[in-house]
Design a protein that fits this description.
The structure is a homotetramer. The first copy, chain A, is an all-alpha fold. In chain A, about 70% of the residues lie in helices and about 0% in strands.
């Protein structure tokens, strides 16, 4: 019993910690295994490689899947609360990333969904200086959330624009130019406004080209809008961090006598804590 | 008479309000109807779907048009001032979005203009926290207006550039490469400077490729200009909002007694003037 | 003699001023003539239009050229100093924009250079509120000058990158994929790094595609650099303008007694003028 | 012996200095030679030119290589410490830029790697006002380093996205549309998310086009993220430089007598702490 508990504790240290050397080694091995397993799935779809090494890759795929299955079960066993792990973000990713291989027995082709394993590499941020990276991620996240309403508004505007331009192009260009339906026109408009421009469909009439030119210039100009939004938001956030770091000035506020009712230093205006 | 007035008032509450539950339900039903009706128009242009379900989609299109016609008339009836509603932004959109179906009886093909109905979805912002979204929209709008003169100046520069490059490419490349006229050269220059790059026309001589390379690098560099303009404008605007939030708070600083040597309010930390 | 001087003065008012009604009318007529003349040159290159209206367009082209020649001579006559006008920015543009038609008598095809006339439209900014637009132009110009060294540095980096990648792709892909020489490889690299992507040349080997992917991601990431440079520069410039507008605070500095040796107000820290 | 030392010193002045006229002349000749030698290598790959001038270009290539070899040896001889020069950034570049020609005797085709000589042009910044350019370079470098963690995080997100979308497109589109393997799907996803859009591979099914549209809009939106990061970082850096320039000037504030009630230095306007 005690040894069982000890095993569990040791497992917990290895799997869930990230400061100790065995935990780091475990993470490193895990990430290499993940990258290898995704590479195996990807390479297996290349015809030449499949013909030559198909069987070996198939075995490797099963080897990694079984490995990750064992790891998944150990994680449930070693976690403080199995249920909490299972329904956590990583728990779900871990589960989804073993499922496709088993599923492919019944429905061939689904094993390609294994690329979801890539998400497991998020753990890599544990190996690097964790806290700092989490901060960066949270910075980007916070900026995006702060600007999300503006971006939703912007995307809605883009959506309406491509729908209307798509319908107009369908009417102007017609089937000869490849605009065989409004949805296809909308698809073309998205390809154009985002400046991807495959060239599989393109206007061929004078009116169509004029409208397309307008759309391109609009697309080129409005890229400034989301960029501006996010830039401005990040600048504000940077400033907040700066001002937080530089707020209570020790030198002034510790030498000054503050009135009892003061919430701010009357000399330098810094908030008193 | 009174019941008529009551009916009108009740309609007004349902149609024009957005805080009550029946008004929200009405808006939600309306938006679903709009999205469905646009989808019907779009799908009807896909050949396979048209052959199979053309008649049903035709009937649906008329169903939605009549529905929106009734709604339009009710809006006129229920609004405080029919005339003001008719000539308001939403009134015109509502009118234009029922017109194409009736018009298509005389001129087939015009029903595709129904995609204008998409603009009616702007009402969706009423369902979400209205005021906040209006603020975001106004923020984007104000930033764009503040930077509009700079952007007009920039677009003029782009226009002159593409005209001159378009003419030069027509002279350099000629008809074999697809540059069959100056307008087509200008169209190519727009496709290139906006980095869309369909590939339907492209330079094939050494001189043409060199000029194209220059245009691309210019295009790639000057995208920075409108982005910079809008970003800077938005940063200024963000700062204004911030400083408005933190500007000398009347309520505090006029009721507090300040020490003679105080440069900052000791209660709220605002600088004293 | 006096009437000659009067004529000259009157011409000067009409041609070089921009506040009076006749001067504005003159500018407006001029701009319409410029746009029409460029349109004539452009349309004449469209085959269908050339066949049908070629002769009429040819006459129109000469009509506009003679008109602009007369205007050019009048400008020299009416200007305070003919020489200074001739060698000014506008003087050179005006001269260059009549030259191609005369030149095309000897070398056919050069008339297309008439598109340079577009630059004359810069005068349009005189019709609009001149001073404000000049300010905007100067703002953009100043920001670009302030960031020009950083952008030159950036362009040099881009140039070295595309040269090296272009040479590598020539070695990897070879002639079958269209990479027939290093200059063509460099051209492809420019098309790719600027995200234009015509698709006339593209990698077809695994190694080539991998290198291309790297180049794309680099190109996609470094677009941030010039944008960031210009944005930051414009933000700084905006702040300077703001702080200039808000510097000497009347309320404080006019009521305070300043020491004789003070360059700044000792209460609010604003510079004293 | 003394003359040997003198020669060495004179060489050192010419090669490693950049303020004197002979040193500047040497740098200028060097840069012209570098640009010419790279042009020679590039032009030699153009078939027409190779046929006509192949032999002359071959001789020129060897001429430049021997020239640079002599220069390299002189640099080692003239430097204060030969070893330190050899292992410095420029030393390695100088060595690598003569190697390919010698190497091409054994392995033909490797001479194209000579384009690495381009890096030697970095010396050009010595001719221009050196210190300022180094500052600009350091500014860009510092901004990129400050935002590197955020950009790594962003690139990781892009990588995971293109892998998953690439695999999905392989499953949806299959071989007929050119998605012959997952790596090719990933390549397509990179071409799309970076808005390059060659058009060599593109979706042809409805589901594929829908997914592609999503990817494009995501790609179009998230370009805002790295731009925002770098812009914000540069804005912060600009501010730091500004505030450093305007930070409490020791020389003034420690020598001035301040009034007791002064919150700001009355000489330089800096806030007093």
């Amino acid at each position: 019993m005690t040894s069982g508990k000890n095993l569990r504790q040791r497992l917990h240290y290895i799997i869930f910690d990230y400061d100790t050397i065995p935990a780091k080694a475990f993470d490193l091995v895990l990430i290499v295994a993940i990258l290898l397993s995704v590479t195996v799935v990807m390479l297996d779809t290349v015809r030449g490689i499949h013909t030559a090494y198909g069987e070996a890759l198939y075995l490797l795929e099963w080897f990694f899947t079984i490995l990750f299955t064992v790891e998944y079960l150990l994680r449930i066993y070693a976690s403080d609360s199995g249920r909490r792990y299972i329904f956590s973000f990583y728990g779900i990713i871990d589960f989804l990333s073993i499922l496709p291989t088993y599923f492919s027995i019944f429905v061939p082709g689904t094993q390609y969904l294994l690329v979801i394993r890539f998400f497991r590499v998020l753990r890599i941020f544990r190996l690097l200086k964790l806290v700092k990276f989490v901060k960066e991620a949270e910075f980007v996240k916070a900026s995006l959330i702060a600007s999300s309403r503006k971006i939703v508004f912007f995307l809605f505007f883009v959506l309406v624009t491509v729908s209307i331009i798509g319908a107009l192009m369908y009417m102007i260009e017609g089937e000869e130019s490849g605009f065989t339906s409004i949805p296809k026109g909308v698809y073309w408009a998205i390809v154009t406004i985002t400046t991807v421009g495959y060239g599989d469909i393109y206007p061929q009439t004078v009116l169509g080209r004029t409208l397309a030119s307008l759309l391109m210039i609009v697309g080129y100009s409005i890229i400034a809008v989301p960029t501006g939004i996010v830039s401005a938001e990040m600048a504000v956030m940077n400033e907040k961090i700066e001002s937080e770091l530089s707020s209570p000035c020790e030198s002034c506020c510790s030498t000054t006598e503050h009135d009892e009712d003061a919430s701010f230093c009357k000399i330098c205006g810094k908030p008193l804590t």
